[in-house]
C-alpha cells in the first residue's frame, strides 16, 4: 500500500505582478518501507514539494492538488489535526540542519525542548533519543548532549537531528539535502546513516538530494525533476545507471565520476514557461514537436518518462 500519494500537485508563488510556477502537476506514490529520491538541479522544485505536503509554505504560495497520507487528505485537515501529524508521524529534516538547532542551547536542552513542544515527557523522550544515538553510530552520546551545536561537526549535527526526528517514530521521514555542505568523510557517514534508518528501522523516506551517490545507495526509486515537473521516474539503478530522459542523461554525465560534463544552457523562466517540452532548448534530440507540444508522462520500460522520443533512446 502507498503510505504517501501525491496527485496533481502544483505550487505557484505570487510575487509582485508575476506568478512563479514552482511545481507543476506532480504525481507520485511512496510505498510503505520505500525510499523515494527526488533529484534535479537547483530550483527544480524539490524542496517546495517537501514543504507543500506539510503545508509549510509561506502565504504567497498557491497550492493545488491532493496529498494523501495513509489515505487521509492532508490538505483538508484542520490546523490542529495537521499539528498531530507534522513532526510526529511525518518528520522533516530541513535543508539546513545548522539552522534547525538553537546555537545558545546545549544539545540536551534542544532535545528536551523538542519533546516538550510536542507534549511528550522530556525525560522519556531523552531516553529514547539516547538509545537511538547509540544505535545510529554516535559515540558517547551523553557527552555529546553536554556540548553546544557549534561544537559538533556537520555530520554529527545531522545525526543528532536524525535521532531527534526518529524518536517520534515517524511513519514518513522527509530529508532535504542531507549531505549538503558535508565533507567527503561525513558524506560517507550519511550514506551509512540513511542505510541504517532504512534497513534497521524500515522507515519510509522521501529523500531530496543533489548527491547522486547517496541516491543510488539509499533510494529504491527516483523521480527526476526539471523546471517544476517530474520528467522521469523509475528504479534508482535504472535512472542513474541507464537513464532514459535526455535531461537525466545530462545530469548523470555531469557527475564527477562520469567526467563532469556540464549540461549546457539554463532551465526556462518559471514566470513564462515554454509551450512545448520545458527541456527542448537544451535537448540534443529535440525537433518541431518538442517545440510545439508539451509531452505527457508515459509508461516506458516499466517506469515513467515525459519525452516525445523515448522510443529512440
Ligand atoms: N517563497 C518563495 N517565493 C517565490 N518563489 C519561490 C519561493 N520558494 C521557492 N521559490 C521558487 O520555486 C522554485 C523551486 O524552488 P525549490 O527551493 O523547491 O528548488 P530546489 O529544487 O529545492 O532547489 P535546491 O536544489 O537549490 O534546493 C524556484 O524557482 C524558487 O525560486
Ligand atoms: Ni531545495
From TrEMBL:
What is the main EC category here?
Answer: translocase
Return the EC number. 7.2.2.11
InterPro entries hit by this protein: AAA+_ATPase, ABC_Ni/Peptide_Import, ABC_transporter-like_ATP-bd, Oligopep_ABC_C, P-loop_NTPase
The alphabetical list of record keywords is: ATP-binding, Cell membrane, Ion transport, Membrane, Nucleotide-binding, Translocase, Transport
Q: Provide the catalytic activity annotation.
A: Ni(2+)(out) + ATP + H2O = Ni(2+)(in) + ADP + phosphate + H(+)
Quaternary structure (record) = The complex is composed of two ATP-binding proteins (NikD and NikE), two transmembrane proteins (NikB and NikC) and a solute-binding protein (NikA).
Q: What is this protein called?
A: Nickel import system ATP-binding protein NikD
Tell me the lineage of the source organism.
Archaea, Methanobacteriati, Methanobacteriota, Stenosarchaea group, Methanomicrobia
